[in-house]
Amino acid sequence: MKTLACFALVFVCLLRLPLSATIDDALSFALEAATPYVKAGYTVREDYWGGDLPVKQKKAIVHQLFKGNEYWFWLGTDTEGARISVHIYDSEGKLAEAESWSNKPHMAAARIVPKATGSYYLIVEIHRSPEERTRWALAYGFR
Amino acid sequence: MAFAQNEASGEIVPPQRIDISSLPAKIVDDVVVPVPSEVFGVLDKLGAPNWHSVLRKIENNGFGERPQIALFLGCVIAEGFIAVEAQEPEEVKKIGREVLNLAGAIGVRKSVISRTNSIIEAADKKDWPRIRVELDGAAQDVKQAMIELKDEQLAQLVSLGGWLRGTEAVTDVVGKNYTKDGAELLHQPVLLDYFERQIDGMSPRLKGNRLVKRVRARLADIRPLIEKPNSVTTENLNQINAITRDLVKAISAQDS
Fold this sequence. Notes:
The complex is a heterodimer. By secondary structure, chain A is an alpha+beta fold. In chain A, about 20% of the residues lie in helices and about 45% in strands. Chain A has a single domain (about 1-140), classed as Jelly Rolls (Sandwich), CATH 2.60.120. In chain A, helix 1 packs antiparallel against helix 2. The longest helix of chain A has 17 residues, at about 25-40. In chain B, helix 5 (about 110-125) packs antiparallel against helix 6 and helix 7 crosses helix 12 (about 235-250). Chain B has a two-stranded antiparallel ribbon with strand order 1-2. Chain B has one domain (about 35-250). The radius of gyration of chain B is 19 Å and the shape is globular. In chain B, about 65% of the residues lie in helices and about 0% in strands. At the A-B interface, helix 1, strand 3, strand 5, strand 6 and strand 8 of A face strand 3, helix 1, helix 6 and helix 9 of B.
């Protein structure tokens, strides 16, 4: 039932997208990336981050994570041909993710099982893009 | 901080270490405030907390000022998450109706009608995961509606109210059965920084509000109790509980 509810949430979010190109379009790709994980029992938060970045410029997002949970962060962009990534570092700057992927069109993701409760840094980057600025949106889920 | 690419898999290979202190302030974004169930879920894994003893009946005392209503709305939504943990469908329904009333009192009723209906419907079916999702959604919808009404600062108080009630509940549960892992859940300096920054950036009228001023002052009292990893002792826990209990009581009181 939990899975069904979360899947419904993703579906509703997709339905709510406007036709104009906005951060919501990038978010729809992030939520599409989330779909298989929702089926695996992750609860997707309704809150998200978004913006636009030039190529090679990073965005750092500070996030409070709790030991005992497992998190996936899903990054999306609506820019055709853009190459994006998200990676997770602890407060000492050490790579803390358990796994990540960045080789699918429009999407990238990273998973973490925090070893300690505290603040973590999510580093978002646009590696390649045909546009001057590339829209992105980052969603997350936990279980 | 250079990212390489793995030729075979096409994956971006991140550096093993970065210098956090060298990140320019302009590239560091605000934080997302966790929902209470992110913390409650961990407590469930650590043991079987008695959520019934933490759940508090919602009393609407008919508030006047908008900052108090926004803070109280956050507390009520957090209470909804506690009611889900306690698996109390009637209390969840009452909370759903109260969310609608409070949203109406600050002019954003329309934004949560569908969510509160879903909460009530899911409570009838005891569909706890769905209620969690809808409570999170209700909080986001209310905040989004406030932002659209150019009331972003008031929206921040909804998050703060939720954090205060959630923290009170966590200290209550962990205090009754202290474990190091449970207490460590309160190590949240990044959230304290965030809330303090939000209040400090509010309009003079809003941050001069008696209740908001009181919350801001007590946040500073919480800081030394949770700042360092592994620093949340039983004594610290009791102090955080007393502070948050006092604030939630003030937020819920008629004469604040």
